[in-house]
Amino acid sequence: MLLYTITDWLGLVPFCFVLGFGILGLVQMIIRRSLLKVDYSILVLG
């Protein structure tokens, strides 16, 4: 049961990275006023 709890919490780590890149892309889109002006690498990672 302990192993299940550990892997369950570790599964949230990739989700946090994706969420971070998504927020970064959203901020760039708001600042630059266009989805096409968002960095390509952030779009791919997000």
Features:
single chain, 46 residues, mainly alpha, 3 helices
Name the overall outline.
rod-shaped
Distance, first to last CA:
32 Å
**DSSP strand (E) fraction?**
under 5%
Question: How many β-strand runs?
Answer: 0
Largest sheet: none
The value of Rg in angstroms is 15 Å
The run of helices and strands is: HHH
Q: Classify the secondary structure makeup into a structural class.
A: mainly alpha
- Note the total helix count: 3
Uncertain regions spanning at least 5 consecutive residues: none
Could you explain the architecture of this structure?
With 46 residues, this protein is mainly alpha-helical. Helix content is 78%, strand content 0%. The chain is built from 3 helices and no strands. The radius of gyration is 15 Å and the shape is rod-shaped. The chain starts with a helix and ends with a helix. The model has no long low-confidence stretch (mean pLDDT 87).
